[in-house]
Design a protein that fits this description.
- InterPro entries: DUF4407.
- It comes from Leeuwenhoekiella blandensis (strain CECT 7118 / CCUG 51940 / KCTC 22103 / MED217) (Flavobacterium sp. (strain MED217)).
- This protein has 366 residues and is mainly α.
Length: 366
């Protein structure tokens, strides 16, 4: 039962193959088994690839099954259409387009399985890429907020500088009226005279201005700090909103790109493995000598070709003979007086009817 199934997969004529030796049947059963298992691997590979895209097991199985059937049909067609010829070069040229198609199929099948085999290494590469993308994303978003934050910091520093400048002025006035009282500067008189009082009043007024300035600038600085906190909150919100996009950066294309960054040799050998599997049935047909099945198939096709050629020639001869007979019959008829007189009478009647009809129409117009 299994042998018949694999023979069916090979695309061979099972009726013709049943009349061949068991060895010939085993050869085509092996070719059919290769076709079947290649389609099975295509189903698994495409199912995994589509699962990484749709993240749905039913959809992956459904599309994978359709893809497996497509590969099965292509391989079966490729193998069944290669005919054994007397010249190997002719056979190779006949199989060359099919070999190119087999290479394409091998690439399509092997790539998803490479992604699964090197999944851990690909995940590591994707993690590094995600980290780089996260840092780049944070820096790009920060660049959007940096000018506003820098402007707020500058304004805060200006407000603080105003307070420091005023404090320096107040301290200087304090030193002036203290040294005046000590008599070490100003008038040089010890004691709290009128000049001392004047300088003390000037210091006290500046001190009051300093207290007012501190209160005003503190309120302004608090408001600016709230703006900075709001910008920081907006920055965190933007980062949290865009982070899921980076976290989902593990689709099929991203995994293929990550696979390309890994050493090429293991992937190349996996590709060669599937290329060998895919091209084995074709090369088996090319390098194997003409077998019993090939001879019987060529004989059956030759017999059919001879029969169709014979039928075509018979139809041509039949038409040629019929044309000769028709020419002779019509030639004999042209010499019969009875047929001539009958046709002359019918022509006269037809001309009379045409003339009567023409007369009636002209009379109505007049």
């Amino acid at each position: 039962m299994l042998k018949k199934f694999f023979i069916l997969c090979s695309g061979a004529d099972h009726v013709l193959l049943d009349s061949c030796a068991p060895g010939e049947q085993n050869k085509y059963a092996g070719i059919g088994a290769t076709v079947f298992f290649t389609a099975l691997m295509a189903f698994i590979a495409s199912g995994y690839a589509l699962y990484t895209v749709f993240d749905s097991i039913p959809m992956a199985i459904g599309f994978g099954f359709v893809w497996g059937l497509l590969i099965f049909n292509l391989d079966r067609f490729i193998v069944s259409t290669i005919k054994k010829r007397d010249n190997f070069l002719d056979e190779f040229l006949q199989a060359l387009p099919r070999l190119i198609l087999a290479v394409i199929i091998a690439v399509v099948i092997s790539k998803p399985l490479e992604l699964k085999i090197f999944e851990k290494e690909i995940d590591r590469v994707l993690l590094e890429q995600k980290n780089d993308l996260t840092l780049a994303n944070q820096n790009q978003i920060a660049d959007q907020f940096t000018p506003a934050v820098a402007a707020l910091d500058t304004e805060i520093e200006n407000l603080k500088s105003e307070v420091v400048t005023k404090e320096t002025e107040v301290n200087a006035l304090y030193d002036i009226y203290i040294t005046e009282a000590e008599g070490t500067s100003g008038t040089g008189k010890l004691g709290k005279g009128p000049v001392y009082k004047e300088k003390r009043e000037k210091h006290d007024a500046a001190l009051a201005e300093l207290q007012q300035l501190k209160q005003t600038n503190s309120e302004k600085i608090a408001a600016l700090e709230l703006e900075k906190a709001s910008l920081a909150s907006d920055y965190e919100t933007r980062v949290s909103e865009t982070q899921p996009i980076i976290d989902n950066f593990d689709g099929l294309m991203a995994r293929i790109d990550a696979l390309e960054t890994l050493p090429w040799l293991p992937s190349f050998f996996i590709f060669l493995l599937f290329l060998a599997i895919e091209t084995t049935p074709i090369f088996a047909k090319l390098i194997s000598p003409k077998g019993e099945y090939d001879l019987k198939l060529a004989d059956a096709e030759g017999e059919l070709k001879s029969w169709t050629t014979q039928k075509a020639n018979q139809r041509k001869n039949l038409i040629d003979a019929d044309n000769v007979i028709n020419d002779k019959v019509y030639g004999d008829l042209t010499e019969e007086d009875e047929l001539y007189n009958y046709k002359k009478k019918m022509a006269r009647d037809l001309m009379q009817k045409q003339q009567d009809a023409f007369y009636k129409r002209q009379s109505k117009l007049l």
